[in-house]
Amino acid sequence: MxxxxxxxxxxxxxxxxxxxxxxxxxLISGGYLALNMAQPLRLASTYLASILVFLLVRLMSRHxxxxxxxxxxxxxxxxxxxxxxxxxxxPVMPYIDQxxxxxxxxxxxxxxxxxxxxxxxxxxxxSLLSAAAVRAVLIIGGAL
Length: 144
Description:
Number of helices: 6
Radius of gyration: 15 Å
Order of helices and strands: HHHHHH
Helix content: over 70%
Number of domains: 1
């Protein structure tokens, strides 16, 4: 099922970028988000982490020259650190629901990288639309 979701996500992400010029937050993000759409807190924490990565990389870019591959790597690595910190803080805060986890390890960095390129709102909407389309195809195809 993961392979189908990622495959569909790559195809939809490519088509979106090719015909509309809109990136979907990383080609694989829509597939992983689609598999977690039944857990809205998990999606919300993923987008929160993505926005924090977006802000941190923008702050870093004021002091370091970041563009292209360097910005991509800064987004991915900052996302990994963000998730690591998030996982370290979860046991300390027992009153928080366990559904508040981040989807994947590189997904927030991929989403944040596209947020840096085209804006937060456009990327968020495009990635959610891609995830919804992937989920709909998986449901119709009987994979979910």
